[in-house]
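pinned: reference chain
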Amino acid sequence: MRIEPQSVHAPEIGAVWLNSPPLTLRQLRGSIVLLDFWDFTCVNCIRTLPYVTAWHRRYRDLGLNVIGIHAPEFYFSKAPEVIERGMAEFGIEYPVMLDNDYAVWKLFANRYWPTKYLIDPQGYMRYAHFGEGAYGETEEAIQELLREQSPRVSLPPIMAPVRPMDAPGALAFCPQPSPEIYLGHRRGRLANADGFKEDDLHRYDLGAGPQADTPELAGLWNSLPDCLTVGSRDASDPSRLCLLYSAAEVNLVLCPSISLPKGRIDVTDNGAPIPVAMRGADISVDAQGQTFVTVDRPRLYRIINRSSFETALLEIRSLTTGLQLFAFTFGSCLEGRG
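pinned: its structure tokens
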């Protein structure tokens, strides 16, 4: 979205910084600034990071300052050490501000992860994009401002799409996947007849049967505002979650138990261990052939990555008391496949 020159001044930024001493937009007057609102567990944000990190490398010596504004979606996303590990994993070398109280998010009246704002040397907002996509358009806007600042600047060609799904028009051919599914009682819902037993350890029973995009629980669970916590303590009675979803890609935000450094969830798809060709990057298999995920730190875990869009029944079982499940996200276009 193009914004007319000298029409909207960008609000100021502040708070806690990583990879940099504290910065202000006033300090950066005279240079071009790209602000990227993101969260390190947000799959939509993660998909944009190869472009944002590349723009930083391509244009930092030509006058572009990339700044990440990390607005946490979950409580653990406020810890600097957790964000720093995620930044190292994603190759983020530019400054990142921790907007833990959403002060800057509110100043920009922001509503989405991710959102990008491009600010010119006079401090005016000149371009904005909400969500994924428009990578070529965004880079063209960056180059336009660089040429305004230095008409003779030598610029590289616009980046080719990192993935086939990023090509212009590609998403028009991707089926609509299941929406993001939150597992805490504040934003989630259950297929179980009695719904959530809020902020309490409770035994749930299956009975409603599979319902599209609505989890059903069995066994002991503790329902908190932003997550479900495994309550099982008995190997013969695991905590179970069943979900009928439609997608090619399934991800789940997980956090270890406070009292245990590692946890485990067992995962089946349509009642069977996940086949090799469908396993997400975080799926392992044990000696008995059971597919599982080792949860060793709070982050997004990749569960399913199949070659086609399907409706299927996912089941999760866990015996790790206190392990936390926050949200499912889904995709319908596969990375790296034509």
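why pinned: The chain has two domains: 16-162, 181-331. The two ends are 28 Å apart (CA to CA).
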